[in-house]
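During the reporting period the student researcher (J.K.) took over the structure-prediction task from the postdoctoral fellow and processed the backlog of single-chain submissions. One of the processed entries is reproduced below for the supervisory committee.
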Amino acid sequence: MITVEKILSETNGGLNIILDLFPQAKVCVGQKNKHFAIRNERTPSACLRQYDSKKYGRIWQVTDFGGDGRGENAVDLYMREKGFDRSRFNEAILQIAAEYGVRDELNRSLNKPDIRQRDAQADEKDGTRRWELKDKFTERELKILGPRVTQADVEALHWYSVKWISNVKDRKTTIKYSTDNYPIFMRECVIEEATPTQPEKKFYKVYEPFNCDKGFRFSYTPAGAKPRSYINGLSELIKAYKKYNDEEEKLWNAEHGDDKPYKIKKLPEAVICSGERDSLCCRSMGYPPLWFNSETYQLSVDEYKEIMKYVDVLYNIPDIDETGRRKGRELALRFIDIHTAWLPDKLQTFKDNRGKPRKDLRDWLEIHSERKDFRNLLKIAMPAKFWVQYFAKDGKPKTEIDTACLYNFLQLNGFYALHDENSANTQFVRVEGNIVKRVNVKDIREFIRRWVVDRFEDRNILNLVLNTTKLSPAALESLQEVDLNFINFTPNSQYFFFPNKTVEVCKPVGESNGIKEYDPGADDLHNYVWEEDVIPHRFKALDDMFEITQSEDEDGQITLDIKIKNVKSHFFGYLINTSRLYWRAETETRFKDDRKSAEEYVKAHPFRIDGDGLTAYEIQEQKRNLINKIFTFGYMLHRYKDSVRAWAPLAMDNKIGDEDECNGRSGKSFFFKVLSFLMKTVKLSGRNPKLMDNPHVFDQVSQFTDMLLVDDCDRYLNLGLFYDNITSDMNVNPKNNRSFTISFDESPKMAFTTNYVPQDFDPSSEARSLYMVFSDWYHQKTEDNDYHETRSIRDDFGKTLYAYDYSEEEWNCDLNFWIQCCRYYLSVKDSGIKPQPPMSNMERRRLKAAMGVNFEDWANGYFSTEGDNLDKFIARDDVFTDYQRFANVKHITMQAFTKKLKAFGKLCPWIDCINPPEYCNSSGRIQKAVQITPELRKTKDMLYVRSMSTDAAAEPPKEQQLQFDGEEDNRPF
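J.K. obtained the following structure tokens:
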């Protein structure tokens, strides 16, 4: 037990408590004759000093000379300041302990028995168990069992204190002696009473309450004697019933003689308790207890009927942890006449000697130990049966609904009013496990009607339900209110909800693989989910499908690699194929015109990221692409939003086309369609370049939206207009309603798909974007392209993914893969890793788009290797005029022309650079005097386009050298 002495010793003699109560007393610490004010007074009259207490040792106390002048320790002061009277002393002690982290925890070095071992004697057979019992319990042992438990109570329930107990195994006798810090108790359990022809049948239950290994607190002897079905306390209840009737019959006969026969009476009540110590506490309050050997024990109908032979009212006091509540509800609904007494929720704010929230009757009695408190607890107990039957004044039987019991019945079945401070209307819900379903009054009435019908209750009960006004909307306003936690993530974890499991995903640590499963309604699961957000497929954990590793070179550059273990998931196969950037080199080019061999290879290697015939560089590029997609999928699944990692995926095609060519059908949108199975998604069409001009563009978005997808973005849609919504709060202006702001934490993650290359890859875009590149593995054959076939996602799998014929096994494989993607993201999210895909083609596409077809055609001719405009100084305005004449454009600016020329210089394989640095002045320009007329010379801006040298031309083509860094080209021009 937690004592005043323990509290004072663990709070610096109580000084910590005193200074929290009176911060102004700090000036007195270490100062003599220093006073502080407790109340509003001109001259401070309280002093703080250390004091040697005979009972508690050296402690701190406060003496208020403006009060009664009596020194008070920290506990007395706390009780006075917090409003605890002496009757609430135990509650105050536990509240102080909870507030200051004082625990009476079990300690393996302290709470252990005295164990000795010797050779077994000749009469000690292996497997035998012997013991010696004490004459009576000590006061300390009784306190361990309960605050009011007496010797009479333990004797009534046949408990004994054990001196020692021995076990014989392998010819060794191990003797375990009880100690003050490790008591051992034993209960004699009667199975059958003795008869003239048969001795009493019984077994013994050994109880070691301070065993640090909770699973070894109980044992039974002799082995196999305990029956499978056994109710503790029942034999004692039967004896009490017989004794009670013997005494009552004597009194009756003394008063009535033989004129009236005595009628057998039942005991007023019995109480089902949750364990050994609870039952003793119940007995100490004057009530006969019953208890089972485990929380999972199923009371049978016959056992219930047997109990009810002896009592009028049967109470149940469950534990108030999740298991206790669940089992308490189950028992109440199976046997609707049982009165369930729920302990108050506040009890869980205190900690027991294992550091766990207090939960049972003994814990409660440590705070409320008076018999009147126990009677009051039973007074508010209610049955699930919501009607009462009685005789009216005219003597006729009458049945009516008991309102309190009706609401208790609904609560037992999970019906509540949902707490919502933002809404004036009451919302009714049904909670089953951790799944929450919205219901209305009609649903509630129908549930009760169906329940009555299924139980074959009398018609008058059904009529009561159909006719009652106690199930009206106004009446149900009084239904128990509940406040539920619907958050399905933390900064480092994500929950996924399935009908049969809740799965928590986090970073793998030690032996944990980062995936933890909970059964519905598990004790340690406190996250709820709306029914419509439950993923409607059963989950079963499978082996890992991939492993991503990283290595670091001498320059500190990190390289990621992936090992594919299996491709059971069709979605994983889809991701692999959309990452095969060099599939044509793998499956077509190396086979030349042998289409049959090519087709056989594709069939034999449907999901190959490191295909035959590819170079090491090409394989690494494809792996980078796949890792990027896995990372991005996991990032999107983690609902938590971090301002440092506020990114929006931007999915693009890898294939390079002409300026106006709109590539597509590569599977980009499918990626986000699958995400929408797992996330509440709002989809906007990006085909309208003026999308953001609509003031109501986000009117479908709420704080419950997980993903906002802008699909199929137009080339001229300005993505920069979305940037503030990616990294900060989101303003929503619904039609015909008031606008509101969704905080960054609750706003959805955004994503984009486009068939075009974005106009800018600048630092601002890179900071907010998580680029994705999709190969053209999936494509459409047309007269205008050189594809040999049309290939769709369906072709790879022989079915439409996630259609009606998609099996539960296939769903489970994909679910496992998605969860493993989320786990990978969580495992690296704090490392600063942001895997980007190969961006060479994206940069080439951007540069080609920046040039335009006309400019590229003109520049290829103007700066051809066969012309005379390379490796020489040319007046820039002459070059500009030549382009205007060729393209027949008059409104192009010099700035736009310069941008196109820069793009051409980066892409052209025979150009080394434009305006070499050695020719430029301090401002980065080349300027030379030009003879305009014989009389006029003028300084002009010049261009110098330097061609590749012979050595430079031997280097790899520029398209393989391009490295995207998200920055503007800063070479001199």
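The committee noted the following: The two ends are 82 Å apart (CA to CA).
J.K. will present the remaining backlog at the next meeting.
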